[in-house]
Amino acid sequence: MECLFLGNYYSLRSQHEKAVLYFQRALKISPAYLCAWTLMGHEYMELKNTSAAIQAYRQAVGKEPYACCRLVLIAGDIHLNTNLCKVVSGL
User: What span, in angstroms and rounded, lies between the C-alpha atoms of 81 and 74?
Assistant: First the structure.
C-alpha cells in the first residue's frame, strides 16, 4: 500500500506529522489495517501526543487482541510500554 510506504518514509526522516497524514490515508482505504494503526500510534508517541497514541493502539488491539504484546516488544523502554499496554488494553 503506497500510503503506508510513504508514512514509513516520512517517519524515518523524523517528519512525524506528515507520516501520520499518510497512515490516516491508508486507514481511509482500509480501516482494519492493523499495521497502519500501530505505526500511527508510534508516530503520535514521537509527537508526545500520548492520548492520540493510545487511541491508535486501542484500534490496533481491537483489530487483533495480541497486538499489544508486539507494542511492548517493539519499543525500547519496556517499563513505559508495559504501562502503556495496560492502558491500551484496559488492564
Answer: 9
* Rg of the chain (C-alpha set): 12
**What is the C-alpha to C-alpha distance for residues 40 and 28, in angstroms, rounded to an integer?**
13
* Interval 20-31 mean pLDDT: 94
CATH of the domain at 53: 1.25.40.10
For residue range 39-58, what is the model confidence (pLDDT) as tens digits?
A: 999 999 999 999 999 899 88
Range of the domain at 50: 2-89
User: Residues 44-52: contacts with CB within 8 Å, 24+ apart?
Assistant: 44/20, 46/11, 46/14, 46/16, 47/16, 47/17, 47/20, 50/84
pTM given for the model: 0.73
Structural domains in the chain (count): 1
- The one-letter amino acid code at 23 reads F
Of 8-12, 62-66, 67-71, the range with the lowest mean pLDDT is 67-71
